[in-house]
Amino acid sequence: MISRDLDGASRKDVYRILSSLVIPRPIAWILTQGREGTSNLAPFSSFMGIFNPPALAVAFGRKSDGSLKDTHRNLRDTGEAVVHLADGTLLEALHATGEELPYGVSEAVRLGLETLPSDRVRPPRLAAAPVALECRLRQELVLDARCDLVLLDVLRAHAAERIWNAELDCADGGMWDPVARLGSLGGPNYVLPGERRTLHKPKRP
């Protein structure tokens, strides 16, 4: 067993180790708009769902110059976002939106990604994404000078018909291939679902 202390380790070492251990990680593909209406689209893999209340948690680091990332800046300015989950058909586009561009450059427009009007928030949603979650900013928690944890309330959920189980009235994880992140060694590296196993809840004695 290899062991490392992480409290007090350098930011680079912590990222290298934890990002290689906490895998696979779902990717929040977040579309926001600035006050002037220009959209920003970027992927974030420090991301999780909370189910009661319906919410999402996303950790934002800073840009290389220490300033807020465009997604985080727009969230502070407008308080709204659409969080998408991508499948394998969108992997190349999702990866391309990870590039750090000047503020005000729309990744969706640059890549020719079609959008649709959202129902309850101002930012539009990606037409091709199998999942889109319309969100409103709930709370920010400053973790340190270069990282903030953001909580988003999920107001409305959209899912493609092809992944929806009508009988259960929810998405069927066996009907699509959501993209997830692996560690960054030699990467970035991504994974799509392979073998699936269904295990029943253990019976109480």
CATH superfamily: Electron Transport, Fmn-binding Protein, Chain A
What's the β-strand tally? 14
Counted up, domains total 1
Structural class: alpha+beta
Major sheet details: 7 strands, antiparallel
The poorly predicted ranges are: none
Spatial gap, N to C terminus: 34 Å
- Name given to the CATH architecture: Roll
Can you tell me the CATH class? Mainly Beta
Strand content: 35-45%
CATH topology: Pnp Oxidase, Chain A
**Count of runs of 4 or more consecutive helical residues:** 4
Mean pLDDT equals 92
Shape: globular
What gyration radius follows from the Cα positions, in whole Å? 18 Å
- Encode the helix/strand succession as letters: HEEEEEHEHHEEEEEEEE
Strand order of the largest sheet: 3-2-6-9-10-5-4
Helix content: 10-25%
Structural commentary:
The model has no long low-confidence stretch (mean pLDDT 92). The chain has a 7-stranded antiparallel sheet. A 3-stranded antiparallel sheet has the order 1-13-14, with no helix packed on it. The longest helix has 11 residues, at 11-21. With 205 residues, the chain is an alpha+beta fold. It is built from 4 helices and 14 strands. The two termini are 34 Å apart. The protein has one domain: Roll (Pnp Oxidase, Chain A). The protein has helices spanning 11-21, 70-78, 91-96, 107-111, and strands at residues 25-26, 28-33, 39-44, 47-51, 54-61, 80-85, 115-116, 125-126, 131-144, 147-159, 164-165, 170-171, 180-181, 190-191.
Compact summary:
The chain has 205 residues and is of the alpha+beta class.
